[in-house]
Specification:
The model has no long low-confidence stretch (mean pLDDT 88). The longest helix has 35 residues. This protein has one domain. With 75 residues, the protein is an all-alpha fold. α1 runs antiparallel to α2.
Length: 75
């Protein structure tokens, strides 16, 4: 499989999927479409925190994807 195991590819796919998932869920919480019985201000803060975490996970995913592409290009 071109020097990259199936588990590494699966891990990258899951990481990318969940980074997008966190962004979407955070957006839904911020806009009030998902409500957990909290006040509107707390909903917004909770959603913003989840969006920030999704951005962080996306950054980590991008770094790992970039490293995997560079090692693939070297071989």
């Amino acid at each position: 499989m071109d020097g990259e195991s199936f588990l590494q590819k699966a891990y990258l796919f899951v990481g990318g999927f969940f980074s997008v998932f966190y962004l979407v869920v955070g957006l839904f919480i911020c806009t009030g479409r998902l409500n957990f019985g909290m006040a509107a201000g707390l909903n917004f803060l909770f959603g913003a925190a989840i969006i920030c975490y999704g951005i962080f996970r996306g950054y980590v995913f991008y770094k790992k994807y970039k490293v995997s592409r560079e090692t693939k290009d070297e071989s």
